[in-house]
Amino acid sequence: MSRFLISCGGTGGHLSPGISLAEGLVARGHSVTLLISQKKVDARLIEKYPHFEFRRVPGTGFSWSPIKFVRCVVTQVRGFLFCLKLVKELRPDGIVGFGGFTSAGVALTGWLRGVPVALHESNRVPGLAIRVLGRLATRVYLPAGIRLASVHSAATRHGGMPVRKEIQRLPQAAARAALGLDPNQQVLVVFGGSQGAGPLNDWVRGKLALFAAEGIQVYCVTGLDKGVAAESRELKTKTGAPIRAVFTPFCDQIAELLSAADLVVSRAGAGTIAELIRCVTPAILIPYPHAADDHQRANAAFFERQGGGLVVEQAFIAALHAEVLDTIFNDWLLRKFRANLERMDRENSLEVMLGDLEEIVTPPPTAPSAPVPSAA
User: Fold this and answer.
1) 224-237 pLDDT tens trace
2) What share of the chain is helix, strand, coil (3-state, %, to 5)?
3) What pLDDT band is residue 63 in, cutting at 50, 70 and 90?
4) All structural domains of the chain with their residue ranges
5) Confidence of residue 376 (pLDDT cuts 50, 70, 90)
6) What's the CA gap between 21 and 12, in Å, rounded?
7) Which of 3.90.1150.10, 3.90.180.10, 3.40.50.2000, 3.30.9.10 would CATH assign to domain 172-344?
């Protein structure tokens, strides 16, 4: 049995694959400790996993703003000292980082102490942490077709994002019932990722009456940091029938949420896309225009090229409702998207990663010593 440290805090896109990997490692008999940030979203996401050990690492994200830059440097130093102490205490056999500011200190500590370090990047444009730390890693997992000049080809493996075992396609009627939705009316899910998206929240509120009139239920996850209280509204269709619109700051029933939807409107984080693929849910992606290195636009473009859905730029959000109406009632197009999504989910990225990590932390067998010839 081996012990692993998994650094995966800061956003749902880092924490969810970290939990998926932890589930797989524990199922194979290994022990895990997960390192998360001190952000509110991490605290909410881990509530469903009390059987795992979590440690909160000091740290904040990088910024060129003078005040935020100084804060980043100070908290990263604190995080590095925290990780030095933790690695000495736990003596892990391997360290896995999923990017973001929580990975820097523990990856550097692992390299300094001779512990194998693996890094995983889910976005089509690798983030700063992966680009800088990749040269120190024993293994770097990248999306298909992506390479980093700073990482030796022998250290690179290609694969998708591990998805938690609970994220599976469910029967649509059962998923809708679990969320209190009518199984006989279309469902539009609006999802800005683990931290929400203000422009998407505002857009769907402005179009509620239009969607209700067309018989479309709306379920919007607004985000914990947006200051929006949970709300359920009853509107009317063109025929006067009641129809629901639900707004909630957070949803920990992602499998039900995505399985209930005919169509999702969402940001284009790698975690959200991986869960859309696993739940075979067509989507219209609205890339966050200020994402680091514009990585969401690259993610969305790849998703659209693979045939999982469509992309609309935030600058053209005024026309988004027309795109939604054209898509959600087009059964032929939705079937085509779902067939493509099923094709995209053929690789078991988690199993590939688990087997590779076990090889990394297992010392090579020692060759038997040659027998000493006896004296004549």
Assistant:
1) 765 566 788 898 99
2) 45, 15, 40
3) low
4) 3-160+347-361, 172-344
5) very low
6) 14
7) 3.40.50.2000
